[in-house]
Amino acid sequence: MNPKTAKNLISMIQVIVGLCSSIGSQNLFARKGSSAVYEDPFDVGAGGASLTRAAQAGILFSNPALLPYGDGFHRWVGAEPSVLVGKESLSLASELSSGAESDPAALIDTLTKTPLHFGLSNAVSYMNKGFGLAIFNRFEPDLFVRKYGDTGLPQINFQAESYHGAAFSLASLVATRMISLGITGKYLYAAEPNLNLEVTDEAAMSKITSTTGMQSLVEHNTGFGFDVGAILFKQGYNFDLKLALKGDDIGGTKLSGSGTLKEIPASYHAGLAATIHGGVDAIHLAIDYRDVQGAYEEKMFKKVRLSSKFLFKRYVGIGVGLRDGWLAYSGEVDLILLRITAATWTKELGDSPGVDSRKIYSLGIAMGF
Amino acid sequence: MRILWPLIMKVMKNYTSRNSFGLFLRAFFVAFLILPACGNKSLFDCAGPKSTVPCNPRSRDEDARIALDKGDLQTAIEILETLIAEEPTKYDRFPLLSAALAGRSGFDIFNIVKANFGSSSSLLQVMGEFLPTPTSKGAGYDNSLADMKRSVAVLNDIPLELRNDISASSFASSCALQLTLYQAAYSIMLINKYSYSSSGFDPSKLSSMTAEDAALILKNLLGAANSGSSSTETSAAVNTAYESIKSQPGSTDQEKIASYVQANKK
Fold it and tell me: Is A300 near chain B, with CB under 8 Å?
């Protein structure tokens, strides 16, 4: 590697960071996992077992059959922007802003120890007991420089989850409150780039460091798909039980375009929950088993999710759970028109526990009622 | 929680004792009680302090990857050596092992960022800035030298057709560059063996250079210059060094190398 290569590396990082920070709701960028394309941060921080209970627009993607189980006809209208950032990214941002890493070699060395991970998401939605509509976007890029890449030399790994689109849900109780069925139709504009670039490959670096070169590698594809959900609900005086079944991307969602993400396979999930409740307080305990038929070939640690949600007086919520095998926490305060959510969880980007973990912090402010 | 606790106890008492789903509730609470045991690892991590659920074992390639990312080169080398011994024709692991051995020898790839092979400085001066010496490594220098030698040997164990630039293997291009860098580094480290003592630069040691080591220095420089690397600046710098040595005064390779060192040291 020579100074030109080093300069290319720095340029590459600048281009990626620049592109990521400039897109906002605009879109840039393979389905690797069976998670819903959009999740509410409170649900994620509570472990992500949200087949039996989900917050706001998350209902449409977690399980549309949940819609009829709210109080009153109207359920929610509003927007719920949120940001997330990786723990290591925070410390790196602090170092960079202080100018402590002005030496390119020192900067690259720091980057090998500190993956850059951040994300933006938002959903503008309206929901009532039988119908829901949402326009959503979620963009979560991850940049990691490996000192020893797949071929032994330094490598930049850039991956992202970029999902945008609209969803439309219908749900209804079937004869009694015991059974609910729901369906979500969705239009997706999606990409999951996973780029591995050797910093010593000058030709590839030159190509990638141009804005057009970068964009050509992260093309989005579009397509329609639909999900179906069912809830079996047994209500008691202080104790409720829910059994949820959900099918995502029934028949497989075909995506078209020049991007690499061509199909989202069908996957099926099952969830069980118990809710202990008083008049207005509730404790919701849930377990989800995702991708029952193994379409994504995920290991157990990604399939099993545990959630406990403690809901006090309708204004305060605390979530504790297990996601990707790690403890996750979330909290929310509902101030009538504002709902503030803070959450932290660990995301496993690799195929096995501990290979590629990212500790994530999230903050969201939902505006609506 | 103070408000909710009586409610929890009441409901738990009423339902967990007589309801068939009580098993689920109890299991859930027990699960949360034992969760803290997983510490700072995933609960499903087999390397965790206390496995409470059937864990998901990592492949040994993944263990090697984790060790490399952490900079634990010793562990990475041990794992990769075992894997290569088990599957000697799975060549994509060879460049990784070579890189780890080079790293353990003291060759930091990111120091190449600082190196300017296009400058008027010689290869000895450019790479001498960051390569280990008997002064910096002390008694461990022979181990560093042995690691770098093995690093080169591991790459040379890959069939030539898989490591030239036109081959279709995913590692061909990087393998060629690695060979250039590691062979050049090995040559300079051999020179350093005979030009540094524990107290610093000591040209008086050059006279002790063996004919075998002198031949190794030249052989590796020639190999580095002709490895097929796409990094023309690096290859050119190595080739210049080789030609410069060959043009030095002296009747033996040792004398030529000694002259080169004397002429190119600050």
Answer: yes
